[in-house]
TrEMBL record:
<dbReference type="InterPro" id="IPR029039">
    <property type="entry name" value="Flavoprotein-like_sf"/>
</dbReference>
<keyword id="KW-0408">Iron</keyword>
<feature type="domain" description="4Fe-4S ferredoxin-type">
    <location>
        <begin position="214"/>
        <end position="236"/>
    </location>
</feature>
<dbReference type="InterPro" id="IPR050157">
    <property type="entry name" value="PSI_iron-sulfur_center"/>
</dbReference>
<protein>
    <submittedName>
        <fullName>4Fe-4S ferredoxin iron-sulfur binding domain-containing protein</fullName>
    </submittedName>
</protein>
<dbReference type="InterPro" id="IPR047964">
    <property type="entry name" value="EFR1-like"/>
</dbReference>
<dbReference type="InterPro" id="IPR017900">
    <property type="entry name" value="4Fe4S_Fe_S_CS"/>
</dbReference>
<dbReference type="Pfam" id="PF13187">
    <property type="entry name" value="Fer4_9"/>
</dbReference>
<keyword id="KW-0411">Iron-sulfur</keyword>
<dbReference type="GO" id="GO:0051539">
    <property type="term" value="F:4 iron, 4 sulfur cluster binding"/>
</dbReference>
<dbReference type="GO" id="GO:0046872">
    <property type="term" value="F:metal ion binding"/>
</dbReference>
<dbReference type="InterPro" id="IPR017896">
    <property type="entry name" value="4Fe4S_Fe-S-bd"/>
</dbReference>
<keyword id="KW-0479">Metal-binding</keyword>
<keyword id="KW-0004">4Fe-4S</keyword>
<feature type="domain" description="4Fe-4S ferredoxin-type">
    <location>
        <begin position="179"/>
        <end position="208"/>
    </location>
</feature>
<comment type="function">
    <text>Ferredoxins are iron-sulfur proteins that transfer electrons in a wide variety of metabolic reactions.</text>
</comment>
């Protein structure tokens, strides 16, 4: 049996996880945030992690998952989705697992449209990345089925380990400083899509309007999925040029990742 744990805000990583899972035998998918609510002993022989790159590194919630997940599989793989560069993400994952005497057997990256708002992928590039993704993910899935091992090539170099961490954290900190999530009441129609897609369950609907908690994982999903462009993160707000969500993923699919699950 195999399981893929994933984190996804605008659908890229869920699309990647689905594509890989469909090509593996007896593979299920579970949300990282859902697992962290009720951790259990993972019995699967093959365990995968699929997540986006945040500022050239792993998202903090994925770091927390790798530090807490209870597992002793025979084969672990990590696939990251990125707009341009994966930075230190794969090497970081390798080191986090190594600290727990676990081995990252295989790491890979796949380029998909950027959803950072700050560095949006132009429309032509979006179309190209979406066209190329199935072939890239097909190769990744074949490598996983064949238990391909590239452990020796996943180390992050000195510059990535120190300079990359510092640069990534600086950028993420600046994004956080832009301000808290907010919703323009005059635009909001109370559809609840923002609450549905939030992987952390950080958004609840109160009197037909979204209420934002303190557990935001900075996936930007709520802002991108809002049909009225009513949500912003301080000065960061997607418009028609910067708004993006994966065309093959729905809000209902994303909603599943935050569900609490017992041991399977």
């Amino acid at each position: 049996m195999a399981v893929i744990f994933y984190l996804s805000g605008t659908g890229n990583s869920m699309y990647a996880a689905k594509s890989i899972a469909q090509k593996l035998e007896q593979c299920r998918m579970e949300g990282i945030t859902g697992y962290l609510k009720v951790p259990y002993e993972v019995q699967d022989e093959v365990v995968g992690i699929v997540c986006p790159v945040y500022c050239m590194a792993l998202p903090p919630v994925v770091e927390a998952f790798l530090q807490q997940v209870k597992m002793v599989p025979q084969y672990i793989f990590l696939v990251v989705t990125m707009g341009a560069m994966s930075g230190q993400a794969l090497g970081q994952g390798k080191e986090l697992l190594k600290q727990r005497e676990l081995r990252l057997s295989y790491g890979a990256q796949v380029a998909l449209p950027d959803n950072s708002i700050v560095f949006p992928s132009p429309q032509a590039r979006q179309e190209k990345l979406l066209r190329n993704a199935p072939a890239e993910l097909g190769l990744i899935a074949r490598n996983i089925k064949n238990k391909y091992d590239n452990y020796q090539h996943l180390d992050r170099g000195f510059l990535w380990k120190y300079g990359g961490t510092a640069a990534g954290m600086w950028v993420l900190d600046k994004i956080k400083q832009f301000g808290k999530l907010s919703c323009a009441d005059d635009k909001c129609v109370g559809c609840g899509i923002c609450a549905e897609v939030c992987p952390a369950g950080n958004i609840t609907m109160a009197a037909g309007k979204p209420a934002f908690g303190s557990e935001c994982v900075h996936c930007f999903g709520c802002a991108h999925w809002c049909p009225q462009n009513a949500i912003s993160l301080g000065r960061l707000k997607p418009d028609q040029k910067t708004r993006y969500k994966h065309p093959e993923i729905t809000p209902a699919e994303l909603a599943v990742q935050k569900e609490r699950k017992d041991e399977i």
